[in-house]
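Quick log. Single chain, no ligands specified.
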Amino acid sequence: MINLKEATFIIPIRIESPDRLRNVVTTTAFLLENFDTNIIIKEVDSESVFQKEAMPILREICEVPIDVKHIFVQNYEPLFHRQKVLNEMIMEANTKIVVNYDCDAILPVESYVKAYEGIMNGTFDVVYPYGQGRYQYQVKPSDDVVSDFLESNEYAILKSNARVHDSDFGWVQFFDRDTYIKGGMENENFKAYAPEDKERYYRYTTLGYKVGRITDYIYHLEHSRGENSWFTNPHMTSNNDEWEKIQRMNKEQLIEYYSGQSYLRKYNEGS
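-> predicted structure:
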């Protein structure tokens, strides 16, 4: 068990399909089995699929206690405002490092450690724990594939059911928590599926924070896509307009823009 006690993995979820359920179970079990760390899962939905379906599976397959802080918020809105949920979770975390973690992502164990150490020793404020370019293994998981992987930690099992694809700014980021907050956290003007990954990277680099990368692969467990995870999101036009506006801003303009965001003032008052 590797010590990552000064990190909190924040995982916002809405389990909308069987493959999402399998992916949430897989990534949660992987983190629990490999790291001594903190995990917050915040589920926003009409009912708790995680409590009803994921927890029994985790208790069955994990050889360690299911030490996860699960927060359920009942909500009947069809679209999942992931950005708002992430901001709430940043404020709920109390460790030096906060990891914005996609429930469909797995990294080599060494990548977690390198990203963690890079922030703990002050080398970086933000770390993207995978390379930019063609560093994504796009995995087609099945019950047998993920079961075999969790039992062995053999990444060859994932690779044999994957194709190499583009990688850029999404999935997982390790943040110094103070930096995350000072830099504006997640932009809540984005709703559901949006170019927030590009915007986040642009903002933290333009603001002058030390942003690093681990040049290795990320394993992305594929899943079906609805309005919350694809371009069919009805807010895509306004989301794209927000990104177009922000990418034209320089450092001073970004600071001014974010200082005027009412949602950000609310969180800063509580920090």
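The longest strand covers residues 2-13.
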